[in-house]
């Protein structure tokens, strides 16, 4: 890089050095050198101008709240009082954007940009402003001097926009507040998008995360004939907040070997002199896109099904490239000190403020923006016809097509009387999902971490295979290069690929063992925050819902043991915005069908559905299931005892979840047989959010309706699928909360029988009967004999499991309305 003298330098403070070893060294404008490569001199000058303009706008966002084009010397009032943002990764992000625009224009590409490095928002924000995306989407931020001032002012400012890529960032489909998901979102966006190119920048700090480390394998699910392409760009700038990055310190041959082992052909772009780096990046971009075009032609025209070795770029440039080299005697450019705000005291320290002004002027803004503050012609000429910041793919709600869903009622099982038949609920759902898959061959995918068949969804494989681009062995089954099921033993990959697919306007389902969905707690959190924040961005459109199917759940993981028993994802979900989250606990196969039909029709929610895969009784007909799911909860009159609209119950027996429903019904059968004068009301909850008040959740039940169901003064014994305290959280404001007693999972688990599992946690039918006896006033004395019999029944049932390794027949063979209780032999 060749430095030149700065016309502003004569007024610099004495302690702002222009080179050498002074306490503060400001960057100086450089003369763009000559360098061989594919770019002509005019092209080189143009792409460098974009890079300088984007860098200027990025620095301005972090620091300035006034005087956006330095028409006067900077004063303290021009600087934000709180300097929030990260500059270190921004020059690399802007470099990639500049070169992506060149190839988009030259090749007529349909492209989007994913910025993985954390808090790199200033870069994509700046490029979006240059492309006039803000003026197009938000008229109060035009592409002129006033708009530039407003654009700077709102960055990381109260009431403004965050420092990372977020829903407020035009062209963004990746939430940059947490690291690790960029490459998965990129590949998810490319699936079923044959004409799309995704430029995905991966930070070298981000590359140390577990999700990103697994993400490299996502290339094994990309079909060159059916899908779009991803150009991964690994941005090596050597540092995180305070430490060097692992990949940047690996010897280059070792790094290349690692990436080749993942199935990529890496191209290296390295240096700190702009002209050679520009030429190297142009060469690499052209080589990547030439290879991609060749692979896609071979697949689409010649039927070549060989998995390509996809190209990628390794970009090794300095951290905080172009920022002040030295601040207060410490090296900044090229070190961890450039990660966030290189001049943290610019408002209060005149020397820092002077360095900041010299830094901004080093980009020569007078050459980049005209007298009105608008970008000059050389910048405007580089904006593609379809800019990445305005590509509808990155605002996926614009592209949503409703699914063609078969009538779920046609897949329902016949239920002549409650509990007369039993089915595996998820297997019944699988037959419906099979036809959903067949009728939506381009915008619906199913994701599962190697558990599709285990979770009883194997009927889907009758109409498609598992997506597989690798070698197929002689004993492999149901693998296909065009498969509509993505199975990979990484919950992170399933979640991230599905999120990318949803964010770009398509639909899908993620089926997972309940205990292991916790692996993606943080990913779910970020996606839920994206959904919530995008509701407040006027130009964002609603995207398809994130649909979970959690099965192999806590109550039927008796064979796998304690590690597989955890219903706590419901608690994680309940913490998120009520505008976004929905939780459903369908008690049987028909209610599961009705619930999932609703979920796949919905937009912009996170729908969590928990359902069992083991044979379980069916309680409701198709018509009853539809009505019950529409209400979200309700009285099952056939299960009540001496309860009618004109009778106040002595006790309410409530439940949510398939196994809790089974145990609550068995308890109700005992009560109606042994205590015939007791008035028992039976209430089943399928939509858990109905337990909230109406002013806390859109599905919340008004207090009057809640009180009508659960009464204002009678004991309520509630059998719950998850941790008991979640129900208390949801209902603490209800009139009768003091009478609510919840039974659920209380972290008692082991490898045992199904009924022993519920007994370990006091959720069993016998304990529910004991709870009723203990809590209904006057009943304990009157039913003392029954209580003792029930206590003995629990002991007998437990002893049986220990002696026989199975549940006692009176439990294992129970059918409604059997009221049998184990007795001593």
TrEMBL record:
Residues 1-10 have a biased composition (Polar residues). Gene3D superfamilies: 3.40.50.920, 3.40.50.970. The keyword Lyase applies. Its cofactor is thiamine diphosphate. Residues 40-398 form the Xylulose 5-phosphate/Fructose 6-phosphate phosphoketolase N-terminal domain. Residues 1-29 are annotated as: Disordered. Residues 613-816 form the Xylulose 5-phosphate/Fructose 6-phosphate phosphoketolase C-terminal domain. Belongs to the XFP family. This is Probable phosphoketolase.
